[in-house]
Design brief:
This protein has 59 residues and is an alpha+beta fold. Helix content is 29%, strand content 29%. Strands 1, 2, 3 and 4 form a 4-stranded antiparallel beta sheet that branches.
Length: 59
């Protein structure tokens, strides 16, 4: 999670178009152990940064 938080800070500083403003980091899907951060580049492509099995590591 610290990697995603650091990436979020850098993306915000660079003015990148983030998805879900205010709630940018979340599970990849319902019940997923993987956490992600989604954003768009200048060409409109959608990108995801993901950390695998975060929920399992917490438990």
């Amino acid at each position: 999670m610290s990697a995603l938080r650091a990436a979020l800070k850098q993306l915000r500083a660079a003015g990148v178009a983030l998805e879900d403003p205010g709630d940018e980091i979340g599970p990849e899907g319902p019940g997923s152990a993987h956490m992600g951060l989604w954003f768009h580049d200048d060409d409109g492509y959608r990108w995801e940064l993901s950390v695998q099995n975060v929920a399992r590591r917490r438990g």
